[in-house]
Amino acid sequence: MDYKVKKEDNQFKVIETKTDKIIYESVDEKKARELARKWNLGGGFSGWTPTFFLDEHKFQPQTD
Q1: Closest C-alpha among 31, 40, 39 to residue 11
Q2: What is the pLDDT of residues 13-33, one digit of tens each?
């Protein structure tokens, strides 16, 4: 799975490219890029990110 970082509304969002789902949000660009790199190198899920991980009702952006 591939991940990219996109800046939007003063937040840096890590997005799963094949599903266009936001996996992580932070005001800290370095942290977002570190996580995207880690996941791109195999540190994430095998296959698509499970829906329980993407539950938008529980998702809270990180303000680090």
Answers
A1: 31
A2: 999 898 898 888 999 999 999
Q: How far apart are CA 57 and CA 4, in angstroms?
A: 22
Q: CA–CA separation, 1 vs 26, rounded Å?
A: 21
Q: What pTM did the predictor assign?
A: 0.68
56, part of any domain:
no
Domain that holds residue 40: 3-45
3-state secondary structure of 26: strand
Looking at the 3D structure of the chain, how many domains does it have?
1
| Distances 61 to 17, 32, 42 between C-alpha atoms, Å | 19, 11, 23
